[in-house]
Amino acid sequence: MHAVVFWMVYPVLWIISILPFRLFYAVSDGVYFLVYYMIGYRKKVVAENLKLVFPEKTEEERFQIRKKFYSHMCDMFLEMIKSLSISNKELKKRFVFTNPEEVLRLQEKNKSIVLMCGHYASYEWMIALQLYGIKIKAYGVYKKIKNPYFDDLVKGIRSKFNGELIPTSIATLTITKHEKENQRGIYAMIADQSPKMAKSKYWANFMDIKVPVFTGSEKLAREFNMAVIYLHVEKVSRGHYVARLINLTDAAQEEAPHIITRKYLDLLEQQIRKKPEFYLWTHKRWKHRNTTIPKGARIID
User: Beta strands 163-167 and 137-142: pairing type?
Assistant: First the structure.
């Protein structure tokens, strides 16, 4: 069944990916109409999230943010499909890194890097970093797709740009193996989702709401004394992004515990407050806010 679904869908995805950008974004507009007006995908979740974190805004202001968000979400989904056929030249033009020398500097110091990302703007096209003369290999830690054919497709797209995906289930083992073999890498980790309550050992304020947070990125960085960078991405126009690499530390072991996680959350929150329409509001990020904090859990100030 997985194979049947894949071969039914894949030709459509390929055709969409090779469309000229004007037609490509016309398709995105159509998908937006379908998702927002016809299906209403997670509209209640999005509305609740926006009301929760922006109580000071009017209903109309939150309504406009919601509509802009859905339009952006559809663009980003289609841009992932565009990765099937986009050229290196076009990708580099549309996802610009303003300071790739930051990675080159750390590369000279023989440091592995944890690249901390959020579900903000575009995290699909950050593979463009490999087009800036970066010699150490880039890895994306991701949740494996249930359909193995689509999973292989996504991994194939990344490998086209000298990247590789590592399932979350084996990420720690894989990175440990690389470090023991003195194999340096850039490890991109999206760290703003909500942990399961059974794993909610650390809590912090995020958008002025106390919620459980992931600290795995910092833990790995501290274990191997990696450098840590925050990926600051801005959407400057439709299909065009500018990324800046913000150094959080050259050596994670030199930082006080949890300061890296706190810095990451603060930087992401600043972006969300500035242009909230580019955050992924369909996630139930604040679902544990009213839950009693487990005994022994630590609060990250």
Answer: parallel
CA 225 to chain centre: 23
Q: Rg for the chain (alpha carbons), in Å?
A: 19
Q: Which residues pair with 243 in a beta bridge?
A: 97, 233
Query: Tens of pLDDT along 173-190?
Result: 999 999 999 999 999 999
pLDDT digits (tens, 9 = 90+) for 86-114: 999 999 999 999 999 999 999 999 999 99
Residue 112 in contact with residue 223, Cβ under 8 Å? no
Instruction: Give me the pLDDT at residue 294, please.
Output: 83
The distance between the two most distant Cα atoms of the chain, rounded to a whole number of Å, is 56
HSE-CB of 147 using CA atoms within 13 angstroms: 13
List C-alpha distances in Å: 215 to 87, 193, 288, 292, 298. 35, 11, 17, 20, 11
**Predicted TM-score of the model (pTM):** 0.94
Torsion sign, CA atoms 68, 70, 74, 80: positive
Question: Please, which residues bridge with residue 24 across strands?
Answer: none
Residues with Cβ within 8 Å of 208's Cβ and at least 6 positions away in sequence, in order, are 53
3-state class of 283 per DSSP?
coil
Neighbour count for residue 23 (Cβ, 10 Å) = 11
Q: What's the pLDDT at 155? A: 78
pLDDT given for residue 175 in this prediction: 95
Rounded-to-integer distance, Cα 273 and Cα 153, Å: 34
DSSP 86: -
Q: Lowest mean pLDDT: which of 60-69, 197-206, 243-252, 275-284?
A: 197-206
